[in-house]
Amino acid sequence: MRIILIVILLSIQFPSFCQTSFKGQLTSGDTMNLEILNAYPESFPKVSLLFHAESTEKSPIWNLSKSDLIVKENKESQLIDTLFLQSKNNAINISLILDHSGSMQQSDELLDTIKYPEMARYIYDGFIYTMEGFKYPEGYVAPIDHAKSAISSFNKSFESNKDLINLIGFSSRVDVDFPFTNDFSKIDSVLSTVKADSMTAFYDALLRGIKNLDNTDGLKSIVALTDGLNNHSNSTFEDVLDSAVRKEIPIYVIGLGSVNIDTLSMLANLTGGRFYHTNDPKSLNEVYSEISRTIQSIYELHYTSNNLSHLDSLKEIVLDYNIDSIYVQKAIINKILPESVIQTLQKRKQQSDLKYIYGGLTILVLVTMGGYLYYKAKSS
């Protein structure tokens, strides 16, 4: 028998705050979101929840306490053992993946400047070929340069005394793999040398990032930018998804321009990450900033379940705020309790049953012996 944990994800009311931290008492004022990233019942009855808390304006909440939250299992309140901000107190390890295929040099703004018949143009796989030397319009900034600037700002939003970032660049193959570092200026130096050219080996780059993160401790995430379809990988979508899910590494995917939105959003959602899409390279800085805020507002909560019955196969876990009269919006995530946990609970039940049986037999024997001795004493 398997026990399925239903984790309810709630959006509730919360007071106003600034971008870096929340201040003030909890009220039913402004709306704030809790999002369950995962539930870990492997050590049941000890259960841990990983979630992040932020406002509807995407600013993180960094000072929640146990008294601010309520956990219920099958509508019964549970005692919260510990709560801490993972991303504030633990190392954050991020594999940054940058698409620098040929199409990252062009944008709609650039294509609008090319006139026929003054200059012949041939477009193939994102490249622009001209019969004469092409001069970029004055002030033109290519998508690759917007991406470099956004990544540089993204890196600076993390703490160099504990957080590590790895840079992976790809076009037809993974040709940049700068190791994890907390010296973010070194990543800027590598970025300055990256040029847009060739095709798109997106899945190969994602697998490289997963492999690199496998050797790190702390929070792990992939933040990947691509502006086209995967067309030059040896790896497949299934390879990436299977590896990321098994290693519990969320993938935050940024799709720029003409990308397969359905495929990329599925990859992000199934791995516990998020998908972002924009047609404007100038908005990349804002997108990267939102991802940074999301990653840095992750909490870990531990509670001990009161229900140890192995027969109770369906559990509903609700995470809520300890505030009255708040608006609640629910979402659900399913979690399978490992078979080993079921067997442990069954064994505990059997041991408990035997204890009561043996205890009852002992009492029966003592009563019988007492009665017999009483009878013998009275007869003599």
Spatial separation of the terminal alpha carbons: 60 Å
Total strand count, please? 16
Query: Which ranges are low-confidence, i.e. pLDDT below 50, for 5 or more consecutive residues?
Result: 1-28, 116-132, 325-334
Mean pLDDT rating: 77
Shape: elongated
The helix-strand sequence is EEEEEHEHEEHEEHHEHEHEHEEEH
Q: Determine the structural class based on helices, strands and strand pairing.
A: alpha/beta
How many helices? The count is 9
What's the alpha carbon Rg, rounded to whole Å?
28 Å
Q: How would you describe the overall organization of this protein?
A:
It is a single chain. The chain is of the alpha/beta class and 380 residues long. 30% of the residues lie in helices and 31% in strands. It contains nine helices and 16 strands. The strands form three sheets. It has a seven-stranded mixed β-barrel. Strands 10-9-6-11-12-13 form a six-stranded mixed β-sheet, sandwiched between helices. A hairpin with a 5-residue loop joins strand 2 and strand 3. Helix 3 (143-156) runs parallel beside helix 8 (284-295) and helix 5 runs parallel beside helix 6. It is elongated. It starts with a strand and ends with a helix.
Keywords:
six-stranded mixed beta sheet; alpha/beta; disordered N terminus; 380 residues; seven-stranded mixed β-barrel
How do you describe this structure in short?
The protein has 380 residues and is of the alpha/beta class. Helix content is 30%, strand content 31%. A 7-stranded mixed barrel has the order 1-2-3-14-5-4-15. A 6-stranded mixed beta sheet has the order 10-9-6-11-12-13, sandwiched between helices.
